[in-house]
Amino acid sequence: MSESDTPNELSDEEQTAVAVEWYLAMWDEALKRGVAPETMVLVAMSATTNKLCEIFGPEHTSLLIKQTAENIGGASPDEDTEASGHG
Fold first, then answer.
1. How many CB atoms lie within 10 A of CB 87?
2. Among 15, 37, 45, 58, which lies 20 to 30 A Cα-Cα from 22?
């Protein structure tokens, strides 16, 4: 039985909390080992895009990415600063 075949025992909130916790820990560890933040961002984007394609298919992934790009393009500079926690 593969991991994807096992029943998920975590609620949506718990899944999100675990995923964020592990992602941030991985990020911090990579930075400690000398990986540049820019490299981390590119790897994260690439890996995420590949997984999105596996899960949702290329067409739906393209739509998700397009919507994300439109959301980014439509954000005001003040919203970008607030959302990123900088400023």
1. 9
2. 58
> How far is the CA of 67 from the CAs of 46, 48, 60, 77, in angstroms?
17, 15, 11, 18
Residues 7, 12: Cα–Cα separation, whole Å: 13
The radius of gyration computed from the CA coordinates of the chain, to the nearest angstrom, equals: 16
Place of tokens 């949702």: 56
DSSP track, 40-81: HHHHHHHHHHHHHHHHH-HHHHHHHHHHHHHHHHHS-HHHHH
Q: What is the pTM of this model?
A: 0.64
Within 8 A by CB and 6+ apart from 37, the residues are 31
pLDDT digits (tens, 9 = 90+) for 3-61: 555 567 999 999 999 999 999 999 999 999 999 999 999 999 999 999 999 999 999 99
Query: Is there a contact between 45 and 53 (Cβ–Cβ < 8 Å)?
Result: no
